[in-house]
Amino acid sequence: MKAIRRFTVRTVLPTALAAVGDLAANLRWSWHEPTRQLFERMDPERWDELGHDPIALLGGIDPARLDELANDSAFVADAEALRDDLRCYLGEPRWYQSLQNAPERIAYFSPEFGIASAIPQYSGGLGILAGDHLKSASDLGLPLIGVGLFYKAGYFRQAIDRDGWQKESYPVLDPDGLPMQLLRDADGAAALVTLALPGGEAMHAHVWQMTVGRVVLLLLDTDIHENSEALRGVTDRLYGGGGEHRLLQELLLGVGGVRAIKRYVEVSGTPAPEVFHTNEGHAGFLGLERISDLIAQGLSFDEALQVVRAGTLFTTHTPVPAGIDRFDLGLIERYFSTELLRGVDVADVLALGAEDYEGGDSGVFNMAVMGLRLAQRANGVSQLHGEVSRGMFGALWPGFDQADVPITSVTNGVHAPTWTDPLMVGLVHEKLGHFETSAADFAGPAITDGDLWAVRRAMREQLVADARCRVKAAWEEENPGIAAPAWMDSLLDPDVLTIGFARRVPTYKRLTLMLHDEDRLRALLTDPERPVQLVIAGKSHPADDGGKALIQRLVQFASAPELRERIVFLPNYDIAMARLLYPGTDIWLNNPLRPLEACGTSGMKAALNGSLNLSILDGWWNEYYDGENGWAIPTADAAGDGAERDKLEADAMYDLIEHQIAPRFYERDEHGVPRRWVQSIRHTLSTLSPELSADRMVREYVERLYMPAAEAQRIISQEDHYPAKHLSAWKERVRAEWPSVSVAHVESGGVESPQLGDELEVRAYIELANLTPDDVLVEVVHGRARNGDDLVDVQRQRLELVSHDLGQPATFAGTVRLSRSGSFGYTVRVTPRHELLASPAELGLVAVAH
Ligand SMILES: *Cc1c(COP(=O)(O)O)cnc(C)c1O
Asked: How much is the pTM?
């Protein structure tokens, strides 16, 4: 029988255990090992059973056991000490508190947050990254507020049927069973966020608050009785629906999210955000709500846009146009021809997302394009992805070289305390006395090769045990009442070279590349001397039958009796599995089609635990591979076609495993330690771990993007937004005049027969129409001239105004030092200049000498 309704009865903790309740309420437990150990002590068996979820543990623990613990003075004292430690963590000054003029608050919007496996509000890398961003923000002391949606069923749970086909189920979460509380107004009523919809309807949402260390996370939830049945389902699942459903989610996230922050700020009496960071385009509507607020204060749309842009950062995550949210123009028009945003004209909204550039589609509204237009600062998530993004969005800045497109990059990182295995932390604690691992721990002699190898084996063993459990549990689920076959108890071997591969299953990630030559793979797996074993996991998007077919092919291959103990597909990849999987693998494999992996973070998490990467030079690996921390699979992008490329890359991968990886792994000294291999582990841990940490990433965001954005938005908002009004009028004037701006003539001299060190004198005559010389930046652009006249290794140098006679072109001049031998080319370009612009390309206007 099925229940028609369910709810969770919260456990009432004995007063002596109040500290335990406080510890469970703050998600710092998701990365704070001592706190997790305290929960484990309460009931080790249930703790394992419940997937290391403190809230479920407190809900499910036997009251008699609670009484026992309440009377255990050592336990109570430990709990209280940990609570004191938490309070200290929450209040003490940290890195951010040493900065001057840093933003008073930063809002971070994301459609998903992966914080702990007990809270499945993520589908993959984007969400986990957002979770790690919050955790590092907390550790560094950032006054950050996260904004997202509360999905009733989160992302799906994956099972694999007997034919190897993926089955999805959507276990419903009970908000009362999660560590979160409703945001309440001063009068105690649940705060209600309301959005006007077409046809006079309205969508309402409650706001849940989670506490992630020092960071508050607000999650909007439409499953409340104030809504119609249909609208209650808006936050049903992560990416649960198509066009309109998705649009409603994004309206709620962006517009509703800003409204939720306003309520939170009111109720808590804490500062409002100065900087808004949108993790991918889904939350882009947040800028429109802020524009609407500024219009209510008397600004025009364009003036308000200047203010919003100044304080907004847009992070793009996808290197493929197909990965971007695009809505039917008519749908957007319908939703914004309402009372949703006071004072905002629908035509202005449509213009922001219009693909009105070469190659664009005039029938769609593009969320990434709007994101870029609403944000003065934008970034990709690895150096290579920055480059790819500058190419992909270059049409928005016509006339500029790709390198000038104002999209920078901040390479992702991962939250080390979450992703470093407790066994590794334990080793560092035992040998060096501290809990937070650092690069230096592995550089010195305190931890020997033998120690490192022992902990690596223990982690592999832990993965093997977990894999056996999962495979048996999956069998029992599919075959109720029939005992799992005995071979499952000898699945995988804790002493065999273990290769891991786990990620979502879109085509570009090439889940089945390893099956390209099945015989060759079979030979690697069953090699009598130097066998290899493979652990694989990943969810296919529910609507992607192609992805499911890949999983099926793999599962079927792995079911052959002679292989099944060496290659296994583990169903339901999630944070809990990942935490054991990365540390337990010796090699983390990644073989995307370059450059389609924007960054990739699983390999970083593996590296933090001493796994070596074997990967295509894509995403983060492209910038961090150094020859010693793993292996690079050469990219065959010059291959004739996709099939040829797959073949070349698969062959290279097999070769590396057979000839380099396996020999090194199995080459042992008299104590059974593979010295050479351990040397690579040590090198990886001592050089890569600081670079790969989310602390490095968040610091970069603060220093390179949040601080300048806060500064820009302060300046532009001064004196009743006078600078914004001025900037808006200036842009309008510059846009109107620009068609008449040109480089009339360029003269040069000073070099007869050019030699290194000579100075080239350049004089440029610029037609300014009705602009003044102060409105423009005139630069010599110079570099090496390559085939034809293309400039490479480009540098720019500003020319200064020499004279400007009325009715004549203005004269600008300067000198360029010839500091490189070889072919030299130059030209002159003019761009708009204003102190409030963050980049000369910002307006997409340029005039170049002909
Ligand atoms: C890290 C992680 C991902 C993302 O991995 P990529 O390498 O970026 O694809 C996905 N799912 C889980 C559970 C993760 O922990």
From this structure: 0.96
